[in-house]
Amino acid sequence: VDHFGFDINKTFKQRYLIADKYWKKDGGSILFYTGNEGDIIWFCNNTGFMWDVAEELKAMLVFAEHRYYGESLPFGANSFKDSRHLNFLTSEQALADFAKLIKHLKQTIPGAENQPVIAVGGSYGGMLAAWFRMKYPHLVVGALAASAPIWQFEDLVPCGIFMEIVTRDFKKSGPNCSESIRRSWNVINRLATTSSGLQWLSEALHLCSPLTDFQDFRMLKDWISETWVNLAMVDYPYECNFLQPLPAWPIKVVCQYFKDPKVSDQLLVQNLFQALNVYYNYSGQVKCLNISETATSSLGSLGWSYQACTEIIMPFCTNGVDDMFEPRSWDLEELSDDCFKEWGVRPRPFWITTLYGGKNISSHRNIIFSNGELDPWSGGGVTKNITDTLVAINIPDGAHHLDLRASNALDPKTVLLARSLEVRYMKQWISDFYTRQG
Amino acid sequence: VDHFGFDINKTFKQRYLIADKYWKKDGGSILFYTGNEGDIIWFCNNTGFMWDVAEELKAMLVFAEHRYYGESLPFGANSFKDSRHLNFLTSEQALADFAKLIKHLKQTIPGAENQPVIAVGGSYGGMLAAWFRMKYPHLVVGALAASAPIWQFEDLVPCGIFMEIVTRDFKKSGPNCSESIRRSWNVINRLATTSSGLQWLSEALHLCSPLTDFQDFRMLKDWISETWVNLAMVDYPYECNFLQPLPAWPIKVVCQYFKDPKVSDQLLVQNLFQALNVYYNYSGQVKCLNISETATSSLGSLGWSYQACTEIIMPFCTNGVDDMFEPRSWDLEELSDDCFKEWGVRPRPFWITTLYGGKNISSHRNIIFSNGELDPWSGGGVTKNITDTLVAINIPDGAHHLDLRASNALDPKTVLLARSLEVRYMKQWISDFYTRQG
Predict the structure, then answer these.
(1) Which chain A residue's Cα is nearest to B356?
(2) Final residue in a domain of this structure, among A318, A343, A368
(3) What is the pLDDT of residues A264-288, one digit of tens each?
């Protein structure tokens, strides 16, 4: 449970998945998925890329679950009980878990010992893959860090960039789309001034629980914002189910309801409902919208909320001009107080860059940073080559780690290109490893 | 206090020393001593090399004290109270302290921000310097790791090598020297079989407290062994006071008492006393020998005993053939039980190599590993170049990090050469840094 202290000598069961169908003991490799904030089976099922390249790389696939997510709970049902039980939920502990797991696999699987391991991850898992290569270069020959916003910390990138990219996605997915959304906030605000307005809003949006007070109203707006953010993340070129079941290019579908800039307030809200319905009810089975949920329950929202209160402090802001949201500045103090109330801990916003180097990472080698240009997380990502071996691969038509998804007939050419480049680098790392071994 | 967990938000005062006499804001550098297991003032006073090169490198000197040593006690007088208070004494926490201190200095000392930092350390501090460069390459451009036995773990080197080197030092410092010492153990053992023998032994060795039982007797032998080890470490070419005040080439002085292979048992013990007296009473002021002390009290023996029970698990063994000691195998279980009794913790002997890479460190850059060939710790050190930028400097006539000591008229040529090479590498790192800055 605690790699970095000796007082607690407790252990826990970490879940991992292995596939060795295409693995070759002779000249093979190991692709190691550095699990992120959720159930590892779900990530495994959404990382088809690893399955698609397994044969070519003669690779064993390993998917390691991140502690405090899925079934890898250090204290079982008590894991989220209080700050004492949560104390071992950090990226450093997770990386140390991965290190020990790799050593364990190499010691116990005959033929694995002298094979190169490549870390693969997306999003927070992509950050972990990159950080793992930085901190444990003796265990992995390289890392594919897909959609990893390793620079979304401190002031390494402007805090507004994330929402600007979300806005850009809506802007280009339909005429008047981002403008209509920008306008919607004022409409909602006006309706919320009266209780009859709130009631009408609740009904027009088919909410499961009617809005009753100011706090509900704040929550509604956050929920709507997060919906647009999530849509930007999963604006994939084909029908699929990642955060939610969705049509191909879902933002285009959403934007069909935001074409007319001159509709009445009420019609705008009714259109807003239709738009939200694309995200929350593509199946047509949903009876009402629940503003306390925005994505799949395979993501561990409790654990992530704690991590976002401790290490993973990412400044976000909006100004309503360069983006389609209500202006909101980054308020560390407010976050800190909220975190203390919720978890009894306070953020350490400068720690991640102290530990992992911030922008000063050029002494490392063999990391691919891939980013989809539709993905708001690309704003905090590495989108330019740093050195010959710390390379950026940008995917103009890609959303959040599209490259890690299984190959699809509707994939844009740019992601095919990205994947083939990624494979080329990985093969290079593998052959360099075997050359060094002699 | 805890860089790796958020439940405890306590801080502590870390002591550090700064000298900026030769520091230049224009084109200068920062030499950062990664403090080891003792009082930082003592290390500062025994690291004349940094003072000697400060002007040439336009360097600010910083000496950072290691947590749990000197005055840098996280819980004041309670720091060593129990395993709960000791839980934050690890190399990882110490490196994180150094990282935060460097960031603090760069933020608060005008002119320091855009200067290259070089980590310098000896012995355990040398391991820390090397590990710091490995784990925080964004904070230091390189490291001088003097007499750093980073491979004295697991089975990376033979467990007997350390005592073999000690023995070699004695063997070549006088005829019959190591043979006499090898013989001495049996003589002592024979005497210890009777209580009158024990009493005679206590008197002949001028012990402050007479030996009364088997445990005392074990302690006596460990104390004598450790004395020979310490002498091998500080077999310097000139009179000085590091672990104890000593003459030049102290082993030669000691070996004058072990010339005759055929003396009686009693004379051998009397000679043994004279030899021990060289180490413990060079000043001539000491009235009796205390077998519970072997070195300066500036070293923090409590803290080190804990570290040697947790992370710093170095296998040692002797066979009495290749070395001059009684045969003793490496017994991890015994150590583990002793550690649990003393500190309530158990060793994790595989952790250091998992964390820092063991022999597989070739992906790192800009570390100098210097070793004196007289130094028993060189057995676990890096004594061959690993790559162009991970280089070994061997000093045939050097004992434990002689190169870090102040220049002395009696220095052998080999250490002068080593120091000039070290300066050349450091200058290269500094100029590379400024070249990259453009």
Answers:
(1) A136
(2) A343
(3) 999 999 999 999 999 999 989 999 9
Dist CA B244 CA A416 (whole Å): 69
ipTM of the complex: 0.94
Question: Do B335 and B371 belong together in one domain?
Answer: no
Q: Are B14 and B72 in contact (CB under 8 A)?
A: yes
A chain contacts of residue B361, beta-carbon cutoff 8 Å: 138
CA gap B244, B294 in Å, rounded: 8
Q: In b/e form, how buried is each residue of B4-43, taking b as 16+ CB within 10 angstroms?
A: bbbbeeeeeebbbeebbebbeeeebbbbbbbbbbbbbebb
Q: What pLDDT, in 10s, does the model give residues B100-157? A: 999 999 999 999 999 999 999 999 999 999 999 999 999 999 999 999 999 999 999 9
Q: How many domains does chain A have?
A: 2
Cβ-based neighbours of B212, under 8 Å, separated by 6 or more: B198
In a domain, A11, yes or no: no
Burial of residue A358, with CB atoms counted within 10 A of its CB: 0-12 exposed, 13-18 middle, 19 or more buried: middle
Q: How far is B265 from chain A (nearest CA, A)?
A: 47
CATH of the domain at B176: 1.20.120.980
Chain-centroid distance of CA B79 in Å reads 22
3-state secondary structure of B431: helix
Question: Do A95 and A179 fall within a single domain?
Answer: no
Contact flag A9-B345 (C-beta cutoff 8 Å): yes
Structure token digits, residue A262: 């001159």
Residue A7 lies in a domain: no
Among the listed residues B201, B2, B23, the one whose alpha carbon sits nearest the alpha carbon of residue B111: B23
Contact: B6, A138; criterion CB under 8 Å: no
Predicted pLDDT of residue A295: 79
φ, ψ of residue B193 to 5 degrees: the values are: -75, -20
Q: Tokens for B316, please give them.
A: 């040692």
B380: which residues sit within 8 A by CB, 6+ positions away? B149, B150, B151, B152, B153, B156, B157, B161, B162, B314
Asked if A256 and A361 sit in the same domain, the reply is: no
Cα separation, B399 vs B18, whole angstroms? 27
B3 located within any domain:
no
Residue positions counted in chain B: 438
Last-in-domain residue among A343, A368, A400: A343
Instruction: Report the relative pairing of strands B29-34 and B16-19 from DSSP bridges.
Output: unpaired
Q: B99 in contact with A at a CB cutoff of 8 Å? A: yes
B252 shares its domain with B172: yes
Catalytic residue flag (residue A400):
yes
Whether residue B267 sits in one domain with residue B219:
yes
* A401 Cβ contact partners less than 8 Å away, ≥ 6 residues apart: A122, A123, A126, A146, A147, A370, A372, A375
Q: Is B378 a catalytic residue?
A: no
CA atoms of A271 and A248, how far apart (whole Å): 20
Q: In this structure, what DSSP letter does residue A388 have?
A: S
AA letter at B247: P
Q: Which domain holds residue A150?
A: 16-154+350-437
Distance between CA B144 and CA B367 in Å, rounded? 6
Task: Answer whether B140's CB lies under 8 Å from B64's CB.
Answer: no
- With vertex at residue A364, the alpha carbon angle to CA A66 and CA A355, rounded to the nearest 5 degrees, is 55
Average of per-residue pLDDT across B67-76: 97
* For range B258-268, the mean pLDDT: 93
Task: Establish if A207 belongs to a structural domain.
Answer: yes
Q: Are residues A23 and A149 part of one domain? A: yes
Instruction: Assess contact for B17 and B63: CB atoms under 8 A.
Output: yes
Instruction: Report which residue type is found at B351.
Output: W
Q: What is the CATH number of the domain that holds B392?
A: 3.40.50.1820
DSSP 8-state secondary structure symbol assigned to residue B378: G
The single-letter code of the amino acid at A431 is S
Which residues in A lie closer than 8 A to residue B358 (C-beta atoms)? 138
